[in-house]
């Protein structure tokens, strides 16, 4: 799977890429030189809206210039260029960018609200920050939003393949 490093202008994109299951590093306060160094060392493609960053020597052939300001359109662009493995929804910690692990229900009793504990059977945790994840209503809302983005990305890809112009951008 392709790995990415999003520049500091793309925090919301990085979050939604993690929701979708992409491996994307992000720091909101990192200078360009450090970002390039870390992306290069870890073999990551840089996602940027910064034209000066995109012109740097190592970055020129190892980046995707993100064209839109809205995270949904940004994610559509990433998916239309690199594709999407749909079975990775909410499998990565939204804070730490590491794979979530299943945790036994009994181990989260004191770490989640009592209502959540009594109404859910499966939980996941981040091995780094120890944040607990479960399938609440927010999960369904996120899934619906991601599905809308995927539909739009699919339509954009078809237009790209058939040579149609996209009038929405």
Short structural summary:
This protein is α/β, with parallel strands linked by helices and 169 residues long.
Structure description:
By secondary structure, this protein is of the alpha/beta class. It has a domain at 3-89. Helices cover 43% and strands 14% of the residues. It has 7 helices and 7 strands; from the N terminus they run βαβαβααβαβαββα. The protein has helices at 11-20, 32-42, 51-54, 57-60, 71-82, 114-119, 137-162, and strands spanning 3-6, 23-26, 45-48, 63-65, 101-103, 123-125, 132-134. Helix 1 links the parallel strand 1 (3-6) and strand 2. The longest helix is centred in the C-terminal third of the chain and has 26 residues, at 137-162. The mean pLDDT is 90.
Principal-axes geometry comes out as: globular
Please list the strands of the largest sheet in the order they lie side by side: 2-1-3-4
Q: Please count the helical segments.
A: 7
Q: Structural class, from helix and strand content? A: alpha/beta
N-end to C-end Cα span? 28 Å
Cα radius of gyration in angstroms: 18 Å
Strand count, sense and barrel status of the largest sheet are:
4 strands, parallel
- Beta strands, count: 7
Strand content: 5-15%
Run of helices and strands: EHEHEHHEHEHEEH
